[in-house]
Design brief:
Length: about 300
C-alpha cells in the first residue's frame, strides 16, 4: 500500500487511550485479569458443555459457539492492547493490522447472528414446545451456526478488502487501541464514500436483521408467557430466557452506543471506552451470566467439581 507521496506504508501506530501513561501498569493488570477470566470462563464453558450429557441441547450447542466466538474476537485485540501498555513502540505491521481487523470483524458479526439464533431457539422452545425437537434439529442448528460464520466472513472480507485498498497519506497513527474501520478510514487520502456506504449498508443490515429477529422472538415469548395461568409457570419459563436476554441487552446496547452516535472528537473517545467494554469485558461477562443465572450449568459445575474432589 502506498501513500500519496509514493512511500509504502509498512506499519501503523496505535495511539490507545489519551493520558494513559501514568496508569499503564494498572491498566495492564486490570485488562490482563479480565482477559484471563474471559479465556478461562469461555474455555470452561465449552469443555463443560462437551462433557456433560445434560447440556447436549440446541441452546447449549449455540452457547458453546458463542463462547468460541468470544474467545476469538477478544484474542484478536486484547494481547496487542496489553503489549502496548508496557512498550514505547506501539506499532503494528500493515499485515498485522489487516489480520486483526479481519479476525475481529468475522467473529463480532458472527456473535450478532449467534445471539439471534439463540433467540429463535428460545422462541421455538416456549411457543412451539411440541415441535421443538423437529424444528431445532441437529441439522438446523448446524446450518444456523454455519450461516452465522458465513455472514461474519462476508462482512469482514468486504470491509477489510475495501479499507486496505485505500491510500494512506494523512498519518499512520490510528486513534484507537486496535485496528477498526472508522479510525483507519480517517487516515485515508483516497475517497472513502464507498467505504462509508458499505459500512452503513452492512452494519445497518446486520444490526437491523439480528435485532429484529431478537425483538420478534421475545415479543412472541412474552405473549406466550402472559397467557400462562400459573405465576410459577410464568416465572420458570421466563427464567430460561433471562441469561440470553441479559447478554443480548448488554451486547446490542454497547454496539448501538458505539456506532450510532454522531461523529465528533468526544464520540471518538467514547467509542474507545465502549470498544473496551465490548471487546474485553463482554466476553468475560457472558460465561458469568450463563453460569450464575442458569440452573443446569450450575448443577453441571457442581457435578464436575465433586468428581474432581473425589479424584484428589
Amino acid at each position: 500500500m502506498t501513500q500519496g507521496n509514493g512511500t509504502e506504508v509498512t506499519e501503523f501506530y496505535l495511539l490507545g487511550f489519551g493520558g494513559q501513561q501514568q496508569f499503564q501498569s494498572v491498566l495492564f493488570t486490570v485488562f490482563l485479569v479480565i482477559y484471563v477470566m474471559s479465556m478461562v470462563g469461555n474455555t470452561g464453558m465449552i469443555l463443560l458443555i462437551n462433557t456433560d450429557s445434560r447440556l447436549q441441547t440446541p441452546m447449549y450447542f449455540f452457547l458453546q459457539h458463542l463462547a468460541f466466538v468470544d474467545i476469538c474476537y477478544t484474542s484478536a485485540i486484547t494481547p496487542k492492547m496489553l503489549q502496548n501498555f508496557m512498550v514505547e513502540n506501539k506499532s503494528i505491521s500493515y499485515r498485522g493490522c489487516l489480520l486483526q481487523l479481519l479476525v475481529y470483524a468475522i467473529f463480532v458479526t458472527s456473535d450478532c447472528y449467534l445471539l439471534a439464533a439463540m433467540a429463535v431457539d428460545r422462541y421455538v422452545a416456549i411457543c412451539k414446545p411440541l415441535h421443538y425437537p423437529i424444528i431445532m434439529s441437529r441439522t438446523v442448528c448446524i446450518l444456523l451456526v454455519a450461516g452465522s460464520y458465513l455472514m461474519g466472513s462476508i462482512n469482514a472480507s468486504v470491509h477489510t478488502g475495501f479499507t486496505f485498498s485505500l491510500s494512506f497519506c494523512k498519518s499512520t497513527n490510528i486513534n484507537h487501541f486496535f485496528c477498526d474501520v472508522p479510525p483507519i478510514l480517517a487516515l485515508s487520502c483516497s475517497s472513502i464514500d464507498i467505504n462509508i456506504m458499505l459500512l452503513v449498508v452492512f452494519v445497518g443490515f446486520n444490526l437491523t436483521f439480528t435485532v429484529s429477529v431478537v425483538i420478534f422472538s421475545y415479543i412472541c415469548i412474552l405473549a406466550a408467557i402472559l397467557k400462562m395461568s400459573s405465576a410459577a409457570g410464568r416465572k420458570k419459563t421466563f427464567s430460561t430466557c433471562a441469561s440470553h436476554l441479559t447478554a443480548v441487552t448488554i451486547f446490542y446496547g454497547t454496539l448501538c452506543y458505539m456506532y450510532l452516535q454522531p461523529p465528533s472528537e468526544r464520540s471518538q473517545e467514547n467509542m474507545k471506552v465502549a470498544s473496551v467494554f465490548y471487546g474485553t469485558v463482554i466476553p468475560m461477562l457472558n460465561p458469568l451470566i450463563y453460569s450464575l443465572r442458569n440452573k443446569e450449568v450450575k448443577e453441571a459445575v457442581k457435578v464436575i467439581g465433586k468428581k474432581f474432589l473425589y479424584q484428589i
